[in-house]
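ok trying again, last paste got cut off:
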Amino acid sequence: MDKSQNRSLYLSVIVPAYNEENSIELTLHSIEAYLSRQSYLYEVIVVNDGSKDKTVEITSKLINEIPHM
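nice, full thing came through this time. structure:
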């Protein structure tokens, strides 16, 4: 069993996104880099607001790379 399953969720980070294809990957990796050094359990939630660029595709790809997204 994963140690994180024994802890309660402490923080939810909501990232609103609209046409962020040029910055969403760096933003999410930066958030993960910071939060992964913390001692609490967290989740990252990306809320897409109808982007017309590749924001959704990029974010979907990152789901497998960023553990708590």
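cool. The chain has one domain: 3-62. The longest helix spans residues 24-35.
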